């Protein structure tokens, strides 16, 4: 019996191992589905982030942590470290 090379209804072709070769439209659909999945995942992350930062203290804390990470990452930029120190002192000031 000869191996199947093409499905009679869908126009699918098969690899020598018997797996279906994806058509261009299938690849485009898969790429779009992956893109939508990423978007939905990220929008869920954004929603959680917004719920998390409901207080100004939490925002200040997160900003200070981000500044520390930037200074650590760009440790050879002394002006960035000075700017970060100034920013953090203003950010963390208690304003009554």
Automatic annotation (TrEMBL):
<protein>
    <submittedName>
        <fullName>Uncharacterized protein</fullName>
    </submittedName>
</protein>
